[in-house]
Design goal:
Length: about 525
C-alpha cells in the first residue's frame, strides 16, 4: 500500500472515530439537558398545582364556616330589597320585555365569631345576599283606533339564587384580606404540603426525595422540612396565597438533593448502550489500525526476507556452477586432488542450501504444531559442548574464541537433544554473525532454585532497546542500511523462542548498542 494512501486512510478513520465519539457525547449531554428542562417544567407545574389547591382549600373553608355561621343565627333583624328594572318594546311583534333583578340583603344583626384573631370581632355583622331575577313578556293589544287597551302576559321566568361570579369574587377578596392577618402555620400545615407535593410529583413521574420550605418575603417560616437548606441554585419556587392584585407575601420552595442522580439514571440505559457500542467501535478501530500497521511491517519484513534468501542462495549456486565448470575442464579432471576439492565445495554449498531450507520448513512445522518433539533426560552441559563443536571451526577461522563457564552443579533437564542442540547452535551463530571483529563468546550456566540458566554473552555490535523487544519475532532483523551486510533471515531466534517455550522455559536478551549482547535461557531442572 502506498505510504501516502495509508496515512490518509488512518487520518480519515481517526477523524470518523473522533466525530462519532463527539456526537455520542453531545447526544448524552443534550439528553441530560432535555431531561433537566422537562424535570424543571414538571416541578413548576406540581408546585403551582399545590399552591392553587391550598388556596382553594382555604377559600372553601371560609365559605363553609360562613354558611355554618349563617344557619346557626336564627331570625333576621331586617331585610332590604334593591330592585333593578329593564323594559324593552318590540314594535314589529307588539311585545314588551320586562326584566327585574332584585338583591335581597338579609341582616342578622348578631355579633360573629367567624373571623378568628380579630380584636374588633364584636363589630362584625353577618349578612346574606340573595339574588332574584324575573323575566316577563307581555303582548300589547290595540283597539280599532290604534290605542293600547290591554297587556296580556305570555311568558314569565323567575330565578332565585345566590351570588353571581362578581359578587362571589368580592366575598373571596374579603376572605383574602382577612387571611393575610392569620399566621402562616395556621393557614397551612406541613402534613398538607408534604402530601400534596408527593402526590403531584408522583403524578408527573418524579419519585425522588425532596425538601421544602415556605418563605415570607425572603425569610424562612416554621413551615419547612427538617433538612431543607436554602440555596441560590437547584431551588424551585411558586408564590402562595396570591391576592387579586397578583401580590403574594409567601413562596413555596422545593429542592431535590438527589436530582443529578435521578436525571442520570433516567437516561442511564441508553447512555450505557451507546457507550458500549462506542467502546466496541473503538476496539475494532484500534484492532484494524494495528492489523494494518502489522501487515505493512510484515510486508516489508517478507520483502527483506526474500531479498536475503535470494542473496543466500545466489552465492552457493554460483559457487556450485563454477565448481562444475572447473571439473569439466580436461586439465582439471585429471587432477584428482582438485576434483576432490571442488566436489567438497559442491557438497558444502549444497549442505548450506539444504540447511537454509530445513530451517524455514522447521519454523513452518513448529507454527502448525506438526513438529514432533519428544523429550528425554539429557545433560545440558553435554548439549552445550556438542553445539560448540558445530561452530568451532568458524570461530577459529575468524581468530575468535568460545569460553565455557559451566558452573551449575545440576544440569539434567527434560529436553529433545537434537532441537535443543539447534537452539544453542543458533544462539552461538547469532553471536558470531554480529561480531564485527573476531568473535569473543562466553557461555555460562548457573542454578537458580529449581532452574538452570544458560547465558551466551558476546562482545559484538549489540542492539538498541527497541530491537531487543522484537528480536525473537519471526522474520525480524535489525535494519542497518545494507540488508546484506549480515546474512540471515530472521528465523533463528524465532525458532529458539518456540523450542524453549515448548520445553516450559523462558528466553530473553539484554544488550546495549556497541557493547555486545547477552542471551538467557531458563529451563526447569529434573
Amino acid at each position: 500500500m502506498n505510504k501516502k494512501l495509508f496515512v490518509l486512510l488512518i487520518v480519515l478513520m481517526s477523524l470518523s472515530l473522533i466525530g462519532l465519539i463527539f456526537v455520542q457525547s453531545f447526544w448524552i449531554t443534550k439528553s441530560i439537558d432535555n431531561k433537566e428542562e422537562q424535570f424543571s417544567n414538571s416541578v413548576s407545574e406540581a408546585l403551582n398545582s399545590v399552591t392553587n389547591k391550598i388556596s382553594e382549600r382555604e377559600t372553601k373553608n371560609y365559605f363553609d364556616r360562613y354558611l355554618d355561621a349563617k344557619d346557626s343565627i336564627g331570625e333576621l333583624k331586617g331585610t332590604q330589597l334593591t330592585n333593578f328594572f329593564f323594559i324593552d318594546r318590540d314594535i314589529n311583534s307588539n311585545e314588551i320585555l320586562l326584566y327585574e333583578h332584585g338583591i335581597l340583603e338579609e341582616d342578622y344583626g348578631i355579633s360573629s365569631t367567624f373571623f378568628d384573631n380579630i380584636d374588633d370581632a364584636d363589630t362584625t355583622i353577618i349578612k346574606n345576599y340573595t339574588s332574584k331575577r324575573t323575566t316577563s313578556i307581555f303582548k300589547e293589544d290595540f283597539d280599532l283606533e290604534g290605542n293600547s287597551f290591554r297587556l296580556t302576559p305570555i311568558q314569565r321566568i323567575e330565578k332565585i339564587g345566590g351570588l353571581n361570579k362578581m359578587e362571589k369574587a368580592a366575598m373571596e377578596e374579603m376572605f383574602m384580606v382577612h387571611a393575610k392577618r392569620v399566621p402562616i402555620h395556621k393557614r397551612v400545615s406541613k402534613q398538607e404540603i408534604e402530601l400534596l407535593l408527593q402526590r403531584e410529583l408522583e403524578n408527573r413521574g418524579i419519585d425522588i426525595d425532596f425538601e421544602y420550605g415556605v418563605y415570607s418575603n425572603g425569610l424562612p417560616t416554621k413551615i419547612k422540612s427538617d433538612r431543607f437548606k436554602y440555596a441560590e441554585t437547584n431551588i424551585y419556587k411558586s408564590p402562595m396565597f396570591v391576592d387579586y392584585e397578583g401580590v403574594s407575601n409567601f413562596d413555596l420552595l422545593i429542592s431535590f438533593p438527589k436530582k443529578k442522580r435521578f436525571l442520570v439514571q433516567s437516561i442511564l440505559g441508553l447512555a450505557l448502550l451507546s457507550l458500549l457500542f462506542t467502546i466496541i467501535i473503538v476496539v475494532a478501530y484500534a484492532g484494524a489500525i494495528y492489523q494494518l500497521i502489522r501487515q505493512k511491517q510484515i510486508s516489508e519484513i517478507k520483502t527483506d526476507f526474500i531479498n536475503n534468501m535470494t542473496h543466500e542462495f545466489k552465492t552457493p549456486i554460483a559457487t556450485i556452477n563454477l565448481a562444475v565448470e572447473a571439473i569439466k575442464n580436461p586439465k582439471i579432471i585429471v587432477d584428482q586432488e582438485k576434483v576432490l576439492r571442488y566436489l567438497q565445495m559442491i557438497r558444502e554449498e549444497n549442505k548450506r542450501m539444504h540447511a537454509q531450507v530445513e530451517n524455514v520448513l522447521r519454523i513452518s512445522k513448529l507454527e502448525k504444531n506438526q513438529l514432533d518433539i519428544s523429550k528425554d533426560r539429557v545433560d545440558i552441559h553435554d548439549i552445550i559442548e556438542d553445539a560448540i563443536t558445530h561452530v568451532q571451526l568458524i570461530v577459529d577461522d575468524r581468530g575468535g574464541y568460545i569460553h565455557t563457564h559451566l558452573d551449575s552443579e545440576r544440569s539434567e533437564v527434560l529436553a529433545n537433544e537434537m532441537h535443543f542442540t539447534n537452539v544453542i547452535v543458533n544462539m552461538l551463530d547469532n553471536a558470531i554473525k554480529y561480531s564485527n571483529e573476531a568473535p569473543k563468546i562466553d557461555v555460562f550456566t548457573e542454578r537458580a532454585k529449581n532452574n538452570i540458566i544458560i547465558k551466551v554473552q558476546d562482545q559484538g555490535a549489540g542492539m538498541s532497546k527497541g530491537v531487543v523487544k522484537k528480536v525473537f519475532e519471526k522474520f525480524y532483523r535489525e535494519h542497518t542500511g545494507d540488508i546484506h551486510n549480515v546474512k540471515g533471515h530472521g528465523l533463528g531466534l524465532s525458532y529458539v523462542k518456540k523450542i524453549v517455550e515448548d520445553h516450559q522455559g523462558e528466553v530473553y536478551a539484554e544488550s546495549e548498542k556497541g557493547k555486545g549482547s547477552t542471551f538467557y535461557i531458563k529451563l526447569p531442572l529434573i
